[in-house]
Amino acid sequence: MTEPRFALPGMLVDGAWESVGEKGQFEVRAPYDGSLVAAVPAGGPADVDRAVIAARNALARDDFARTDRIRVLEQASAALNDRREDFATAIALESAKPIKTARVEAARAAETFAFAAAEARRLAGEVVPMDASPAGAGKTAFTLRVPVGVVAAISPFNFPLNLVAHKLAPAIAAGCPVVLKPASQTPVSALLLAELLHGLGVPAGWLNVVTGGGGTVGDALATHPDVAYVTFTGSSEVGWALVAKAPRTKVRLELGSNSPLIVDASGDWETAAAKASVAGFSHAGQSCISTQRIFVHEDIADDFVSALVTRVEGLRVGDPMDEHTDVSSLISAGETERMEQWVKEAVEAGGKVLTGGEAEHLPGGVVFRPTVIEGMPATAKVQCEEVFGPIVTITRFTSFDDALAQANDSRYGLQAGVYTAEIAKALQAAKTLSFGGVLINEVPTSRSDQQPYGGVRDSGNTREGPAYAIEEMTEIRLITLQP
């Protein structure tokens, strides 16, 4: 048997590493070439129960003081920077994210921990002016921010390190013990992060990791009666199903989208084309805010489309470990087949493929070529659903009002981008577009880790970013004092 690239300690339950789960082990294989990346424990409901009990007991012990939590967060940030290449390699191998992009993710994870440490230092309640009403006369009152309880963290495959960081770092800062279930396709970097945190002195039970499938580990974790808070990033269908299964739990969702980009005639279309050629295809389009639906004014459409297609055709596809690769494999062969089917449907409905549109078989693996389609109807899947692949669509418009309406015509609402030089149109877009974020003169794929990040409608019900996640992972407790 071929030796795996990574020898992992296993999953973490109550401060102890376990090499085998309730269901045995499973293999993690590289999406690009199928090589063995790691062998990982296959957990089950019994493992989840033990992990949640350990977390509940840790909360009761209250033996992870704020000063220690801050130290761990700051040291984790520094260690992630020191070991950036190790983590980037894990990300690239397990997810097929090009290595140069994986390095960016590793650097962002370090920043996420740094932001969480800063927020942990200033986490506080406030004084309540009780004497402002007759009922409060003679009373002194203040609030405390207290941990909400045991946090269940369920993370996706596309950002296997930084989106884990966005769940673990705020939980540590808030004083909440956490049980993590990383994506079964990409658990390696999450386990390496857990190993790093454990080595920094996180007490037993405060950090637990149970690896396994969503239908076994994920469901058992989200519906456990001792879990107070679920933070989930993934598909809309799975996320809202978890809400239905756990109606009495705070279930916070960061879900998908089919992010629109509007390029008005007055906008800097050259910059928009350059950025869209990256934003639509980074990590093969497998991002919740990947630029997907591009609406461009007819007066500049020919020039914009020509520039975009030229840049997209210049993207290099191939091995994620190649320093020159821009786009590599999708997470599975099934996703590649889905891209082919969706492109075929769009063409049959009247769409025209301007570039790409098919899988390319390379010596080491298979990559779906970056694709631009124009002229498909609004009902085509590539237009009305979340592609989550390397496909962008082009729609021409004459009226800015109509472009806003078409962008809003979606069950999703995560982030939207608008390029315009007219302040009136920028303000109109900010007011009209029903999205969690409206980015003026920027593509919708832009995200800074400290920003409030999240969406509306089928895109979710929360805002991530350490400050905002910590607030949701704590509750307000009122204290009154009276002589």
From TrEMBL:
UniProt keyword 4Fe-4S, yes or no: no
Keyword entries, A-Z: Oxidoreductase
InterPro entries the record matches: Ald_DH/histidinol_DH, Ald_DH_C, Ald_DH_N, Aldehyde_DH_dom, ALDH-related_metabolic_enz
Pfam families in the cross-refs: Aldedh (PF00171)
Domain Aldehyde dehydrogenase: 23-478
Molecular function terms, GO-annotated: lactaldehyde dehydrogenase (NAD+) activity
Top-rank taxon: Bacteria
Cited SUPFAM superfamilies: ALDH-like
Family: Belongs to the aldehyde dehydrogenase family.
Protein name stated in the entry: Aldehyde dehydrogenase
Taxonomic lineage: Bacteria, Bacillati, Actinomycetota, Actinomycetes, Streptosporangiales
